[in-house]
């Protein structure tokens, strides 16, 4: 579904992502984890073209993204950034209309089909009852769901999320991740997200990609990847790992080495 | 609910338009010779006597129309600059666009008056140079363009061009009085010829501003979200800035520096009608026209027989309003 081939990105003279390759299969949820400054978010920005890549290719299906226009890319994937801000007088419904813009010529108005898709996105995310509320007045978790509804209205093949839970309390974190999982299950939507919390990555992903210094350190199922040795090596932190009845591993952080 | 909200906003635009028509009628009647609205109307439909005809058609109508056009231009220019810079304090005056345009106009007026036909074009070039200077200095790779950096580089660019204006005034002081009248943002002594000269450019500018609405709206979600929605953000920035520079420079070429219209009007329009450019650009156009007509009418009637240029009235009212905005945390 999504394939990165030896992507490299540098900020001025500092190389942030080096020869990064990985592949995401259709319908998978993949979490990218790694220490601060390891290049996680930069990889997502490289995929969407927000940051130019020095070299490498990104494929969605057969299409190489660098050969497409920004607009064509926006029809294939939607991405939510870490922090989103909307004007103080914008309602949830107005926000969701923007999700249809990639599919509209600049002079075309929204039609019934667009309104149907927006309605569908609002219902799926449970935001239909907040449609008339101002995004600005919602709690962090609800606001994030409103933005998710917008991203869904874009009808993407792949959803990219950059630390979708960073500014949320624990209840809202789970709320948003549950929603992402539901969307994945019901729509077979492929999701790639950057997360900080190892337990979230373990609970909500089919595969985990561990990034260290801009390169793939490990990539596989949570059981395969999230081991004491690997976490010690990548984060320099001692942990206990609990695996009950073949479930995904649960990580207890003990102390720094 | 959303439909009702849209209707309310549409109604506000219509009300503003009606107020503009009233302002036009009132303004035509006010002056050293007063005309009642009925007399004004009679003259407009061709039933006035010669005396009224002369006053209206030769003096007041061109002046009011010019105020209308310039006010609309500057307000739309400010609204677009605020969209591009995502900064409520951006306006053609504070970002140096107006003074950039003024320098080239003054240069043509004083140094090579034989090329005065090129004044509008020269103004656009000057305004564009100023905008490019502001962008270059305000933009930082890490943080983009913060409000503070835009205002600071605007102040710097303004200072540079202000210096050049001062230099030109001293070097060519013999030819200065006419230029000075122009520079203060005065609408007096203009005829229908001036209106016809500026109207095609301005109408083209208004049309372009209206065609930019969707792009401006996408920028409201921030640069990253706009990119993810398929906008080429840099191209959009250049496009919107060009339209804004075009509108402001065309105005400067005719009446010089009229400050604060581009700052205050889009801000008032945000308060009254919200941040959706679908409504706020048309609203700013109409409101800007009304505001400048009122300012000019006050300027020529309050201290009569003395005439105060509209630019000076706007600066005197606009300065305090600007401080009030900063206090309120609008910046």
UniProtKB/TrEMBL annotation, chain A:
The molecular function GO annotations come to: ATP binding; ATP hydrolysis activity
One Pfam family name from the record? ABC_tran
Q: Where in the cell is it found?
A: Cell membrane
Q: This protein's superkingdom?
A: Bacteria
**Record-annotated ABC transporter domain positions:** 2-238
Q: Name one GO cellular component term.
A: plasma membrane
Q: How does it sit in the membrane?
A: Peripheral membrane protein
**What is the official name of this protein in its record?**
Iron ABC transporter ATP-binding protein
Q: Which organism is it from?
A: Paenibacillus solani
UniProtKB/TrEMBL annotation, chain B:
Name its species: Paenibacillus solani
TM segments? Answer: 59-81, 93-112, 118-138, 150-173, 193-213, 238-265, 277-294, 306-326
Report the GO molecular function annotations.
transmembrane transporter activity
Q: Which domain of life is it from?
A: Bacteria
Name the family. Answer: Belongs to the binding-protein-dependent transport system permease family. FecCD subfamily.
| Gene3D superfamilies found in the cross-reference section | ABC transporter involved in vitamin B12 uptake, BtuC
- Localisation per UniProt entry: Cell membrane
Report the InterPro entries cross-referenced here. ABC_BtuC-like, ABC_transptr_permease_BtuC
Lineage of origin = Bacteria, Bacillati, Bacillota, Bacilli, Bacillales
* One Pfam family named in its UniProt record: FecCD
What protein is this chain from?
Iron ABC transporter permease
Sorted alphabetically, which SUPFAM superfamilies does this protein's record hold? ABC transporter involved in vitamin B12 uptake, BtuC
Q: Name one GO cellular component term.
A: plasma membrane
Membrane topology summary: Multi-pass membrane protein
Q: Which GO BP annotation is one of this protein's?
A: siderophore-iron import into cell
Q: What is its main location?
A: membrane
Record keywords, A-Z: Cell membrane, Membrane, Transmembrane, Transmembrane helix, Transport
Annotated signal sequence range: none
